[in-house]
Specification:
- The structure is a single chain.
- Strand 2 and strand 3 form a beta hairpin.
- This protein is of the alpha/beta class.
- It has a nine-stranded mixed sheet with strand order 1-2-3-5-4-6-7-8-9, with helices on both faces. The protein has an eight-stranded mixed sheet with strand order 10-11-12-14-13-15-16-17, sandwiched between helices.
- It has 24 helices and 17 strands.
- The protein folds into two domains: about 220 residues, Rossmann fold (3-Layer(aba) Sandwich), CATH 3.40.50; about 325 residues, 3-Layer(aba) Sandwich (Rossmann fold), CATH 3.40.50.
Length: about 675
């Protein structure tokens, strides 16, 4: 018997290498899911066009009387429907509490009084009053607000302005801003104001009350002249200035400095897209910042911008739309000269330095001291009188309220959902009523789908078709449809990490004989906007829609397109929430849900102290006020809703679902 020839070791090595390379090669499913269907800018461009068309334009009014009637109604609507929503209506009526905490030497001609005031129950704001010596009679008063400066009220340029005002015989109140200076703490981070929104109370309210109560303090001073009251500030302080001045007519002169631009301007100049407070929920259903500027008419208004502003709001593009909008309104009142602008060229960067301060002093002189021969707008050198942060520190309560503590207090009483009825007819009515309520909360729309087949391919027994699904005539949802052999049903697959991350889940579904349609809804995967993404999501809420409503509407629409009895599989807490809302809204096309990593309760979002920039759709205004996860799951029943690998918190929160299914005539068990 002949011995077979030996196999060369080099050949064996090549076989091993080839096998390893084959093993390392991505599977067909992985390759298909990773393929680009839409471009990197598709969703951003669609969002820009969608949002621009929904930002309100200035009304065409022909008389000053018409404008005044419109302006009065608009102010009231913004305050009632945007600022003082939910529990904030009670905060609005709270008694003003002020505590004076001593006086320190200022410099020649003035002293500095320390105080704190309660912006809303439990939230105290530190402030400094720069008071001229030998006050007699009524004198002008200026509320000085500050922006995104870690130094807060101690910022040197702000101190110098307050000192100069006091040396001109003006009462200058220097107030702290939430998240800055002494209030620079985690709980005051602006991205946490949306925790209040989730609870159905305006996250904008603490910002507004911070300003309004400061104005209350100023006007309560015995020497403050109510006819000579001004507000001014830089950046976020400029935003505060226009918001307060537009909505509170006690302000008689306003000078916002590099603080805002129109929503339409921001959509094309992304560095202008500001924090949560600058894009509050539903503001753009009523007004743009063009309207707020026009609401100043006929009161004197100085719009200050910087030529080469590296931060935001460059004068060249930010200023003209505001003047174009407000100018005609000032002219209707015969007061076109009261609308002024100043463009700073040196240094021209984001600043409220000497040139901009002197522009403000001139404005104050023209309107508050029109006949004062000795008044000068030239700045008085006061650099040596600037104090340290420590010298200007104001004592605050040990447990001062913040966005997070306020939200946690609100959440303790939520949701306000009626209890589940024990009889079947009552349960069905409860479900129908809550479905309409959910539709209202998420601002759901019945989207239609127009499908465009992009490509098709087959590899390793898997057939893939790539689709661009135009949803609602606005949003392009990329979809990858896959089958292996004869499909026994359809599963829509989505994930927090995007469809590229769920190849393993797709493989399991294909192995079960499922047709898999993997999508990326708005803000996920290929549909995640590359720059300023969460700020686009905020603007969706500002124009009256909700990111959660857009996303769940997309899921429901794609399920209708994909055929009847489509199951939805979601991987991650965010897409699980989207799937729950979609099933709650869509009774027919969605046959059931399989949720991996779902929240057990929306209160976990608050307990984990999450922020809107990380999970914007979760902070849907009023969602927790009306629903929790168990209520959303109840809307889908008796269709199966499987919670995979639930946490102990989820098991506790969702334990009652089994009884709910039984009430509806099903013995299905949501929890394994």
């Amino acid at each position: 018997m002949r011995t077979p020839p030996a196999i060369p070791s080099t050949f064996l090595a090549l076989v091993v290498v080839f096998a390893l390379l084959r093993a390392a090669e991505p599977s067909a499913v992985h390759t298909f899911l990773a393929r680009e269907v839409v471009t990197a800018r598709t969703t951003q461009v669609e969002a820009q066009e969608y949002l621009e068309g929904r930002v309100p334009r200035m009304p065409r009014l022909t008389t000053h009387a018409e404008w005044q009637k419109y302006a009065d109604r608009l102010r009231a609507d913004i305050l009632d429907k945007v600022v003082y929503r939910g529990e904030a209506a009670g905060w609005r009526d709270a008694r003003l509490a002020v505590e004076w905490l001593g006086t320190i030497d200022g410099g020649p001609g003035y002293a500095i009084k320390k105080l704190r005031y309660e912006a809303l129950p439990g939230l105290w704001v530190p402030a400094l009053l720069y008071e001229p010596e030998k006050l007699t009679g009524k004198v002008p008063a200026v509320l000085n607000v500050n922006g995104h400066d870690v130094n807060g009220k101690a910022a040197p340029y702000k101190q110098i302005r307050c000192i100069n005002l006091a040396k001109r015989g003006i009462l200058a109140l220097n107030v702290e801003w939430l998240g800055m200076g002494q209030l620079r703490a985690d709980g005051y981070a602006h991205t946490r104001m949306n925790q209040l929104d989730l609870c159905g109370t305006s996250g904008l309210a603490p910002f507004y009350l911070n300003m309004k109560r400061g104005l209350d303090v100023l006007l309560d001073l015995p020497n403050a002249d109510p006819e000579r009251v001004a507000v001014t500030g830089l950046s976020g302080g400029g935003w505060q200035t226009i918001v307060l001045s537009a909505l509170d007519t006690r302000v008689k002169l306003s000078n916002p400095v590099a603080g805002y631009s129109s929503f339409r301007t921001r959509l094309r100049h992304l560095k202008d897209m500001g924090d949560s407070e600058q894009t509050p929920c539903d503001l753009a259903t009523l007004a743009d910042y063009t309207h707020l500027t026009a609401l100043m008419a006929p009161r004197p208004t100085l719009l200050t911008y910087n030529l080469k502003d590296e931060c935001c709001f460059e004068s060249g593009y930010a200023l003209p739309p505001l003047v174009d909008a407000a100018g005609p309104v000032f002219r209707l009142a015969g007061r076109e000269k009261e609308l002024r602008s100043h463009v700073n060229e040196v240094p021209g960067t984001h600043n409220y330095e000497k040139d901009n301060r002197e522009a403000f002093y001139r404005m104050v002189g023209d309107y508050f001291f029109p006949n004062a021969a000795g008044y000068s707008a030239v700045e008085i050198d006061s650099a040596r009188e600037v104090k340290t942060k420590e010298e200007l520190t104001v004592d605050l309560p040990a447990k001062n309220a913040d966005f997070h503590t306020l939200a946690m207090d609100l959440a303790a009483k939520l949701p306000k959902t009626p209890a589940w009825p024990a009889d079947r007819d009552g349960a069905r009515k409860w479900r129908d009523d809550r479905r309409e309520e959910l539709r209202e909360v998420v601002r759901a729309k019945p989207f239609e789908v127009q499908a465009e087949k992009v490509a098709a391919e087959e590899k390793d027994g898997v057939r893939a078709t790539f689709w661009k699904l135009k949803v609602g005539g606005t949003w392009t949802v990329p979809a990858v449809e896959m089958t292996r052999g004869e499909a026994k049903g359809t599963t829509l697959l989505l994930a927090d990490a995007g469809r590229k991350a769920v190849a393993a889940e797709a493989e399991k579904l294909l192995a079960r004989g499922r047709r898999v349609v993997a999508i990326d809804p708005f803000y996920f995967g290929e549909c995640k906007i590359a720059e300023k993404d969460w700020l686009f999501a905020l603007l969706v809420s500002a124009v009256g829609d909700r990111p959660l409503g857009v996303q769940s509407g997309q899921v429901a629409a794609v399920c209708r397109w994909a055929g009847s009895d489509v199951e939805v599989a979601a991987v991650g807490p965010r897409t699980s929430l989207i799937a729950l809302v979609a099933a709650g809204l869509e009774e027919k096309a969605i046959a059931g849900l399989e949720l991996s990593g779902s929240l057990g309760s929306l209160k976990e979002v608050l307990e984990r102290n999450q922020t809107v920039n990380a999970t914007p759709e979760v902070f849907c205004f009023g969602l927790l006020e009306r629903f929790d996860v168990k209520h959303l799951a109840a809307l889908a029943a008796p269709r199966p809703v499987r919670f995979r690998d639930p946490s102990e918190r989820a098991r506790k929160e969702l334990a009652g679902l089994k009884r709910w299914y039984a009430t509806l005539g099903s013995d299905f068990m949501p929890l394994p």
